[in-house]
Amino acid sequence: MNKEDLVVKEKQFITRAVHAGERADFSNVNSVVTPIFPSVGYTFADSNELDAVLGGEQPGYVYSPRYANPTIVALETAVANLEGAEAALALPSGMAAIHLALLGAGVRAGSHVIAAADVYGATYTLLQNIFTELGATVHLVDVLDLAEIKRILKEVPVTAVLVETISNPLMKVADLPQLAALAHTHNARFLVDNTFCSPYLCNPIRFGADMVIHSATKFISGHGDVMAGLVATTNELKNEMVRLNKLLGSSLGPFEAWLTHRGLKTLPLRMRQQCQNALTIATWLQNHPKISQVHYAFLPDHPQFDLMHQLSGGKGGGAVLSFEVRGAGKPEIFALMDALQLIQPATSLGDIYSLMLYPAISSHRTLTSDERHSLGIGDGLLRLSAGIEDAADIQADLAQALEIV
User: For the chain, which domains are there?
Assistant: First the structure.
């Protein structure tokens, strides 16, 4: 741990977001901001030093980024700090992070995995197609049905339980403390995709998670200009993922790491505004005659409002909400999205810009129509990621677009 980490370790979240991971000892390169180190190889004073570093007997860098890179280590240090984890591993995408976390947790042929049924569409397909084809058995369950999860844990040896803190796109809130207790009682690893909350709203490790996964493309980087993934976990599990990744070669580049770390520094400021905007828009949509249902975890009538309040310490329900346009199908939804002027119709979330997505053709496109509808993802469902614009301007744009329907 460098001097800077010792200084910021006990500071408030917003201070740690700015300073964590910075100003490591780079041989007296006393820069305020961590430099970008693009070098793949590193030289040493002699072969004995190279041997010591390769053997783990001495700190240092030997081959970047597969083993380690100073710019990437700075990002990993910062995220581990903000998540309250021993360590973190940076990867080139959120899906790479999900995939490697499952492998690192021990999922192999013959393993059983419990996963929330309404996880992100690509996660759903990874589990149902790739891992199933490789010999794992995947049990998709309603994350709110603790009795069913308990039943499966009792009946088969489960290797991993995977949930999202807030589900995408129906905004169900996972009961992290109870799920962690159930998983650990039956010797299963508990994995939490914390992308929608970010470390600012929730630290799942505090509630018993073994691995916390992020698509850092979203809120952590926050500006829609870089793709990255992260897993925050224990030193032991990180070492296992590093061992696997030396063979898989799924490495984040130093330029992407630097951009992600730069974005991370304003995370609390952005999330505070985005949560406020999302709540304002969700409350307004609840009273709109063309909206039949609003899904947002910080609305007082949301079934898990109290749980979300507990997990976030009252800081908010996130920046993402979804809503059903009354009686709408694909033609009406397309007309609405084409009418947007400020809100960008884009297949992402977590940016400083407000973004609108139609799950049926994007995040959950790989699911059949029957699979989508069984999960509650209908043809009139839209997902909005609130940006940092003025809430009145976001609302006005939605209002004029809804007039088209």
Answer: 267-402 (3.90.1150.10)
